[in-house]
Write a structure and sequence with these properties.
Chain B: It is found in: Membrane. The complex is a heterodimer of chains A (258) and B (447). Chain A is built from 9 helices and 13 strands. By secondary structure, chain A is an alpha/beta fold. Chain A has 2 domains: 133 residues, 3-Layer(aba) Sandwich (Rossmann fold); 102 residues, Winged helix-like DNA-binding domain superfamily/Winged helix DNA-binding domain (Arc Repressor Mutant, subunit A). Chain A is elongated. The longest helix of chain B has 48 residues. Helix content of chain B is 54%, strand content 14%. Chain B has 3 domains: 81 residues; 104 residues, Sensor histidine kinase RisS, periplasmic domain (Beta-Lactamase), CATH 3.30.450.300; 149 residues, Heat Shock Protein 90. With 447 residues, chain B is of the alpha+beta class. Chain B has 12 helices and 11 strands. In chain B, helix 8 runs parallel beside helix 12 and helix 10 packs antiparallel against helix 12. Classes of the chains: A alpha/beta (258), B alpha+beta (447). Chains A and B meet through helix 2, strand 9 and helix 9 of A and helix 7, helix 8, strand 5, helix 9 and helix 10 of B.
Chain lengths: 258, 447
């Protein structure tokens, strides 16, 4: 019943890749269900992560006073303080990446979570490979940002009237209308707007748009580009993506960040 | 009118039971009828007694009778003709027929005899001529020799056959009919409100009716309100239960999944267990989607329906559905995106499941947008087309038994589309297959 476009597939990527990239990846898990906490901790340790786990928000604040982590896995339904509120408070002082776990898996929770600055959202049940893949993707995306443009991932991007709201992963037309993109299309567009008015090779595009592993479509970049063009087409039928022969593509209009 | 004003005052003062009220209405009509009839009789009598026409007719009759009696028999028809005027026609007959149409009109006869005593010996006979034969009054008087004078006057009884007068006499009845109609209508108005409210029972907005009207109606409304509250509570608790089930099962399911991940079992078994867990998880997702369908919070947004449809189509195509699209590249409507996205995905999923191919078309009309998903699958038996909108309905045949799901797919679509003010139409296609059509209101002007 889950829409194919929203449904996330399991990536074949393996953890050791990240172990090489990040000598020690320190994770924090906030999960009130004891057995589940134990299972996640155990399975992630087996994949080479260093992980600490607490059951409540109160414990989290105590631990965060002394230690720092590369990523926090946060259950949305927590006793005392709800995960969304935890994230809101966390974001006042810390920029640590956050992946939400949700037993409700509702669209609304997902959107609110992402808008509050969560980096990903994983509905229960999930398997270890999927969780590991998401952790890897978030860390890689964040590390890429550190090199190029710190903390810009969540900002809105505007180009010729269109708005790409990256936190909520929404594209809005010049008239303010919500234009659905599949996950792959969103990631591709996000890659384009990161390098506006420059020719980008297909390989580079694949690499850039692979930061998120959800919906890793088998479709070639060319198919995705043509789908994206159709959605971005103005009344005259022209889209701001140009084919550069022998190289790849170019996003032709300037972008501004907000 | 003073009569209806009085009735209205009574109506406002007295709060009778419905039965008493209907009896009262009947009584009013009976009284009205009685009064109207009496009035008519009264008028009739008064007219004849007072009319100069009677005296004049009597005079004319006496003179004509004398003249005819004096005239030789052979010339009497001519004389009768000469005695006739435009309003009083006279004829002569040698003998009165044994049978004639004339029946005595005693009161009128008395008046005429009173006016001219001489006519007492004439064995006066009178009759009203039906309107179909020209109206008026006819009569006959005997001459002393036994021959007969026949006369006819249109004037004398014109009152009974005059359209204007007819209207004047029927006016009270008409008026009372209107009053009665108004009374009955006012009495049943609360019942009509009740019927309207009943149509809303079971939907999300519960409306309690004010207790108004007669005592039985008040009781009915009170009972209805209680029933409505109970139904609403049941629906709410069902929703809460389903949500709780969905939520509470996800954590143990997550544990199970992680245990399977770490268990020392062979890959084939692990794969099968993964399948089972993901199917359970999909069932929970569809349950949750059903509960949430049509309850989208927040205002409707401007969305590009064409882009949404294409995104869903592309996703379904990537998952293996052979699908074509016909329609515009962009089409703005106002709706709640999450629900609509799911509705479209469900239709595509059904096409994928039962047919493997789908033809999607999007047609913008002036007021409605029509989105059709057609397949060449087995379709749905005609008599089950309405059933499949009901939640937990699965077609009990071979093709449905080995499919996944709880029979919520089309129920979700139906609820989502109704919440958007639209409609889901299902029909079998000529040549086989199903076509599901979503009609959505096209309200784009608010932006």
């Amino acid at each position: 019943m889950v829409s194919p476009a929203l449904h996330t597939h399991i990536s074949q990527m393996d953890a050791p890749v990240y172990e090489q990239q990040f000598a020690v990846t320190r994770l924090m898990l906030v999960e009130d269900d004891g057995p589940l906490r134990t299972l996640i901790t155990r399975n992630l340790r087996e994949h080479g992560f260093e992980i600490a786990a607490v059951a409540t928000a109160a414990e989290l604040w105590l631990v965060l006073e002394k230690e720092s982590f590369d990523l926090i896995i946060l259950d949305i339904m927590l006793p005392g303080m709800n995960g969304l509120d935890v994230l809101r408070r966390l974001r006042r002082t810390l920029d640590t990446p956050v992946i939400f776990l949700s037993a409700r898996g509702s669209e609304e929770d997902r959107i609110v979570g992402l808008e509050l600055g969560a980096d990903d959202f994983l509905p229960k049940p999930f398997n270890t490979r999927e969780l590991v893949a998401r952790i890897g993707a978030v860390l890689r995306r964040r590390s890429g940002e550190v090199l190029s443009e710190p903390r810009a991932a969540a900002g809105d991007i505007v180009f010729s009237g269109w708005t790409l709201a990256r936190a909520s992963r929404e594209l809005r037309s010049p008239s303010g209308m919500l234009v659905d993109l599949t996950t792959a299309e969103f990631d591709l567009l996000n890659a384009f707007v990161s390098y506006p008015q420059r020719a980008i090779g297909r390989e580079k595009l694949i690499e850039l748009s692979r930061t998120r592993l959800g919906d890793s479509s088998d479709r070639s970049v060319d198919v995705l580009v043509s789908r994206l063009r159709r959605k971005l087409a103005g009344p005259d039928g022209s889209a701001p993506i140009k084919t550069v022969r022998g190289v790849g593509y170019m996003f032709t209009v300037p972008v501004t960040r907000q | 009118m003073s009569v209806s004003a009085t009735l209205r005052r009574w109506y406002e003062r007295i709060s009778l039971s419905l039965a008493a009220r209907l009896l009262a209405i009947m009584l009013v009509i009976l009284v009205a009828d009685f009064v109207a009839n009496s009035l008519m009789f009264e008028r009739a009598r008064t007219f004849v007694v007072n009319s100069e026409e009677v005296a004049r007719a009597a005079e004319h009759l006496v003179v004509a009778r004398r003249v005819l009696a004096d005239a030789p028999r052979h010339s009497r028809p001519l004389v009768a003709h000469q005695l006739s005027t435009s309003r009083f026609h006279i004829d002569w007959r040698a003998r009165r027929p044994a049978e004639n149409d004339f029946a005595a009109l005693p009161s009128l006869k008395d008046e005429i005899v009173q006016a001219q005593r001489e006519l007492a010996s004439a064995d006066l006979q009178l009759v009203l001529v039906p309107l179909s034969r020209g109206g008026g009054m006819a009569g006959s008087a005997l001459l002393p020799d036994g021959s007969e004078l026949v006369f006819r006057s249109k004037r004398l009884v014109s009152w009974s056959l005059n359209w204007d007068l007819l209207l004047r006499f029927s006016l009270p009845s008409l008026l009372f009919f209107l009053v009665a109609w108004w009374l009955v209508r006012t009495s049943v108005a609360p019942l009509q409100r009740l019927v309207t409210a009943m149509r809303q029972v079971g939907t999300d907005d519960m409306e309690l009716l004010p207790e108004a009207g007669q005592s039985e109606v008040r009781q009915l409304i009170r009972a209805f309100n209680r029933m409505n509250e109970r139904i609403h509570q049941l629906l709410t608790s069902r929703t809460q239960t389903l949500l709780a089930v969905g939520h509470d099962l996800r954590t143990p399911l997550a544990r199970l999944q992680l245990r399977v991940d770490g268990a020392p079992i062979d890959e084939a078994t692990r794969g099968e267990m993964d399948e089972d867990i993901s199917e359970m998880s999909e069932l929970l997702a569809s349950l949750q989607a059903f509960v949430e369908s049509g309850q989208d919070s927040g205002p409707a947004r401007a969305i590009d329906l064409a882009a949404m449809v294409r995104s869903q189509i592309d996703g379904a195509a990537d998952a293996g559905l052979e699908v074509t699209y016909e329609g515009p590249d962009s089409l703005e409507i106002r709706a709640h995106p999450a629900g609509l996205r799911r509705a479209i995905a469900n239709l595509l999923q059904n096409a994928h499941r039962y047919a493997g191919t789908a033809e999607v078309s999007l047609r913008p009309g002036d007021e409605w947008v029509e989105l059709a998903v057609a397949d060449r699958g087995p379709g749905i038996p005609e008599e089950r087309l309405d059933d499949v909108r009901q939640p937990f309905t699965r077609l009990d045949d071979a093709r449905a038994r080995n499919t996944r799901g709880m029979g919520l797919g089309l129920a979700i679509v139906d609820r989502v589309i109704q919440a958007e003010g639209g409609r889901l139409d299902l029909a079998n296609r000529p040549g086989g297959g199903l076509v599901a059509t979503l009609l959505l209101p096209r309200t784009t002007t608010e932006a």
